Each structure stands twice: as structure tokens, then as C-alpha cells.
């Protein structure tokens, strides 16, 4: 059984395509779509004025906030068309989306997070953080991380309860997390990106880039960091902490989002069929089943 599961995971990894990076820059009226495999720009799409918050849903819908705008715009990255908008009443500062396609929204100067059900197009309850929010990200386990003036507040979206607080010491302006549970932290006054292991609840070796925008690619295990005050995105191998490439962006990067790793349905259908046959065989020991 264990060997079968391992085989399915190996097959799925062979079927995964390269991730796509989306980013906005200061003064720009578009969002850039970037192929992380070929290291080249795919296209740009109109996006109003200086996109400063991005989140990408599993259905390919890109949610973005523009500087000074009080609504969230929707863009279909599959069909390359603009969709409707979501009015939030205040200028959008941060966006993040979880595995269930629930969108989390913070606005400038706010100390609470609004939640939005993107499947039913309706607002849910708000989460009061108690401090001004400067950054957001969500883990694969449903944990929401909110960067504040000197710490990171954690919130379990499955049980609607607060967890531990991670002390940082300065304003947390950028967050990204890997599926392995490593939280990457950009903060003011720091010349490097902190790495916090959420499993062992301890800080590990930092990555040497001063950043205020982060995104993590779980396919290549690489960290994308917008250089603070610069006009580039630096890419780092998360396992070694070494810089692997540099993406010139022309202007300062204000927001990033990276496509989630797709799970090929054909592989899982094949796997579920095999598991069904194995279960049937266990229930019927007197019958011989041949799997070719």
C-alpha cells in the first residue's frame, strides 16, 4: 500500500507543469505574467493603477487591488478577460487565498481581516487581529498568518481560533509560506528574509535578501523576493538559501502571486481505481484478481 501511494505521488510530480508568476510594479497599469520555467514574460494584462495586492485562486481567477482603489478586481487568467469586482469600501492592502478558495482581505489602517467566499460570491465573518495588518499569507493546513507592527498573529481558519504569536521585533511587511511549513518573513530594518519553521516553532537560517514582497513556488521549491527599493525579483533555492536567478522588472515590485501546483486528475482517478481493486481483493480473499 505504501509503495502504491509513493508511486502515485511520483507519477503526479511528472505531470505537473511549470508555475506562473504574476506581479505588479509601482506606477504600472498592468500585471505581468511570467513563465518560471523559460524565465520569460508571457503577457501583460490591464490592471488600473499600481496593483499592490494579488491572490490567485485554484480556478485561475486572479484577484487584485489597485493603489487607492476601494474594490478588488477579478481577472480570468485562463480566458484572459476581466470579470466583475468586489467592493470592500476601503483601499485594499493585502490579499491571500486558501485551498478552499476563501479570500482574505485587509485594508490600509485596518486591524481586522474580511473573509470572502469566492465560490458563492459572498462575505463571511471578519477576523479581528487587534493591530494594524501589514501582510497576509495562508498555509496548506488552513492557518492564516497576519503580519503586524512587531509580530505575526496566527489563526486557525478550520476551528476559528487564534494560535501562537510569532515575535519578530519590527513591522512585518511581507509573508510567504511553503507547503512544508517554512514561513518566510520580510520586515523593516532587516537586510535579510527570516525563515520560521512552523512545525518546530523556531527560526532557522535566514536568506540574504532585503524584501517587502514575497511569493513561494512549491513546485521548484524556490522563494521569489521583490527587492526593497529596487526594480527586480530575486529567486532563491529554499533548500540551500542560494540565489538562482534575477528577474528585472523595470520598477519596484508591489505585489506577487504564483500559481498553485496543479494535481493531475487522471493520475488520481487511476490511483483511486487501483485502491478500489485492492480493497475489493482484501474483502474477497478467495478470489484472484490480476492487475495488468
Going by CATH, the homologous superfamily of the largest domain would be: YVTN repeat-like/Quinoprotein amine dehydrogenase
SSE-based structural type: mainly beta
Q: Give the neighbour order of strands across the main sheet.
A: 3-2-1-24
Whole-number tally of structural domains: 2
Low-pLDDT runs of 5+ residues are: 1-16, 262-292
**How many helices?**
2
Mean pLDDT: 86
Beta-strand level of the residues, as a percent range?
over 45%
* Rounded Rg: 20 Å
Walk me through what this model shows.
The chain has 292 residues and is mainly beta. The protein has two domains: 1-16 and 265-292; 20-262, 7 Propeller (Methylamine Dehydrogenase, Chain H), CATH 2.130.10.10. The protein contains two helices and 24 strands. It has helices at residues 2-15, 265-283; strands at residues 20-25, 30-35, 40-46, 51-56, 61-66, 71-76, 81-87, 92-97, 102-107, 112-117, 122-128, 135-138, 143-147, 151-156, 161-167, 172-177, 182-187, 194-197, 202-203, 211-217, 222-227, 232-237, 243-248, 253-258. Strands 3-2-1-24 form a four-stranded antiparallel sheet, with no helix packed on it. The protein has a four-stranded antiparallel sheet with strand order 4-5-6-7, with no helix packed on it. The longest helix has 19 residues, at 265-283. The radius of gyration is 20 Å and the shape is globular. The relative contact order is 0.13.
Task: Using brief descriptors, characterize the structure shown.
2 helices, 2 domains, four-stranded antiparallel beta sheet, 48% strand, Methylamine Dehydrogenase, Chain H, 24 strands, 292 residues
Amino acid at each position: 500500500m505504501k509503495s502504491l501511494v509513493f508511486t502515485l505521488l511520483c507519477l503526479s510530480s511528472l505531470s505537473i507543469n511549470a508555475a506562473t508568476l504574476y506581479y505588479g510594479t509601482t506606477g504600472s497599469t498592468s500585471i505581468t505574467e511570467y513563465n518560471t520555467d523559460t524565465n520569460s514574460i508571457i503577457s501583460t494584462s490591464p490592471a488600473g493603477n499600481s496593483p499592490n495586492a494579488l491572490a490567485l485562486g485554484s480556478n485561475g481567477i486572479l484577484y487584485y487591488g489597485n493603489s487607492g482603489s476601494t474594490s478588488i478586481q477579478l481577472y480570468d487568467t485562463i480566458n484572459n478577460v476581466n470579470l466583475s469586482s468586489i467592493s470592500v469600501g476601503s483601499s485594499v492592502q493585502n490579499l491571500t487565498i486558501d485551498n478552499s478558495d476563501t479570500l482574505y482581505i485587509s485594508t490600509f489602517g485596518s486591524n481586522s481581516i474580511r473573509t470572502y467566499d469566492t465560490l458563492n460570491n459572498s462575505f463571511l465573518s471578519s477576523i479581528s487581529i487587534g493591530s494594524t495588518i501589514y501582510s497576509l499569507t495562508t498555509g496548506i493546513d488552513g492557518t492564516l498568518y497576519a503580519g503586524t507592527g512587531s509580530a505575526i498573529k496566527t489563526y486557525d481558519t478550520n476551528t476559528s481560533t487564534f494560535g501562537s504569536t510569532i515575535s519578530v521585533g519590527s513591522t512585518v511587511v511581507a509573508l510567504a509560506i511553503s507547503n512544508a511549513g517554512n514561513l518566510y518573513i520580510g520586515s523593516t530594518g532587516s537586510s535579510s528574509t527570516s525563515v520560521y519553521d512552523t512545525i518546530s516553532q523556531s527560526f532557522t537560517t535566514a536568506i540574504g535578501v532585503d524584501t517587502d514582497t514575497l511569493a513561494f513556488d512549491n513546485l521548484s521549491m524556490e522563494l521569489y523576493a521583490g527587492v526593497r527599493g529596487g526594480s527586480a525579483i530575486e529567486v532563491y533555492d529554499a533548500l540551500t538559501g542560494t540565489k538562482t536567478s534575477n528577474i528585472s522588472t523595470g520598477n519596484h515590485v508591489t505585489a506577487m502571486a504564483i500559481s498553485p501546483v496543479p494535481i493531475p486528475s487522471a493520475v488520481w482517478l487511476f490511483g483511486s481505481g487501483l485502491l478500489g481493486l485492492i480493497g475489493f481483493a482484501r474483502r474477497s480473499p478467495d478470489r484472484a484478481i490480476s492487475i495488468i
